[in-house]
Amino acid sequence: MLKLTKKIDYALMAINFMSFKGESVANTRNIAEIYNIPLELLAKVLQRLAKKGFIVSQNGPKGGYTLAKDPNVITLGELIRAIEGPIQIVHCTEGDTSCLQTARCTIRSPLRKIEHKIVDFLDNVTIDQICSEEVPEELAV
Amino acid sequence: MLKLTKKIDYALMAINFMSFKGESVANTRNIAEIYNIPLELLAKVLQRLAKKGFIVSQNGPKGGYTLAKDPNVITLGELIRAIEGPIQIVHCTEGDTSCLQTARCTIRSPLRKIEHKIVDFLDNVTIDQICSEEVPEELAV
DNA sequence: TAATCGGCGATCATTAAGGTCGGATATATA
DNA sequence: TATATATCCGACCTTAATGATCGCCGATTA
Ligand code: FES
Ligand code: FES
Asked: Backbone dihedral region of B60: left (phi > 0), alpha (psi from -120 to 50 degrees) or beta?
């Protein structure tokens, strides 16, 4: 119900961590251990972020990820779309036939406007507004 | 993922319908048939709305519901809270111990601010901005 | 060439949402 | 007063989305 997913949380934590690592690579295991995130799940999230061009992967031993973009040019909206797909506050799309209410639905189009405004808002929140927390020195190996 | 529930949809449709009925009562079955909503589910939603004081119930035959408030003083935020409980974009509350990331979570409090802004927005959208659609005359029995 | 990393598809588990059922109480009307 | 029709309410089942796991591959570097 109007909730962000864990994947988004993980992505934000990971980006936060990477932004403190700067040029040096951060590997998945390291991040997973620090934040207590299931390794495989975090791996998937990072793969997705890499695919979408937010981070760059470095394969092989001593490999890992580095940020491809500055956190202040990535928006929360972009990040959500990258991981979860298009943001849809209201489930029924225009051409959708599966919804039984489609025929007499009085609310679809007004809700679209609200959706648009929320998306608009999310597209104006940059990641660095969220990722400004310190990473404890002793953990940022 | 950041989606409104069907219950909210149903509530909006019902309120829309009732606002066109004016003083005369609208019964659950009637609304359910028109909009193709599962009767029992709609009933529950309306009971919830009645309990929260948005609509007034009239028991017995010829009974039903009438609006207790003008749609232009009810906000979407209120409606969502009435039906689904408090709006939480981010799952983990402050005292929550169940989340494994709590210890080193860097994103909880920044996300709270975003949540607050969205809630603020929803609290400034009135229902009549959504419920402005016509109800076909032949159906509004 | 062995150990360490990311890449990827398939799969299972858990939870939340959507929907159903059965029985109760209230009330208008015949 | 009997009956039909309405709201009320809690328990329950089903389905879909999310969260998490597994196994195997290819890349890279020491
Ligand atoms: S079309 Fe599905 S609820 Fe409006
Ligand atoms: S406390 Fe649960 S993700 Fe931050």
From this structure: left
Q: How many CB atoms lie within 10 A of CB A76?
A: 21
* B74 C-beta closer than 6 A to ligand 2: no
> In chain B, pLDDT over 90 holds for what percent of residues?
79
Work out which ligand 2 atom sits closest to the CA atom of B99.
Answer: 2
Sign of CA dihedral A36, A139, B114, B96: positive
Cβ-based neighbours of B130, under 8 Å, separated by 6 or more: A107, A110, A111, A114, B12, B16, B76
Per-residue CB contacts under 7 A with strand C, chain B residues 20-49 = 38, 40-41, 44
Asked whether the beta carbons of B88 and B9 are under 8 A apart, the reply is no
Span A7-53, pLDDT tens digits: 999 999 999 999 989 889 999 999 999 999 999 999 999 999 999 99
Structural domain of A129: 6-133
User: B105: Cβ below 6 Å to ligand 2?
Assistant: yes
Amino acid letter, B53:
G
**Element spanning A66, H or E:** strand A64-67
Q: Do B131 and A110 touch (CB under 8 A)?
A: yes
- Convert the pLDDT of each residue in B43-79 to its tens digit: 999 999 999 999 999 999 999 999 999 999 999 999 9
Q: How many CB atoms lie within 10 A of CB B94?
A: 8
**β-sheet bridge partners, residue A75:** A126
In a domain, B139, yes or no: no
- CATH for B57: 1.10.10.10
Q: Is residue A87 part of a domain?
A: yes
Whole-model pTM above 0.85? yes
Of all residues in chain B, the one with the smallest CA distance to A122 is B114
- Tell me, yes or no, whether A1 lies in a domain: no
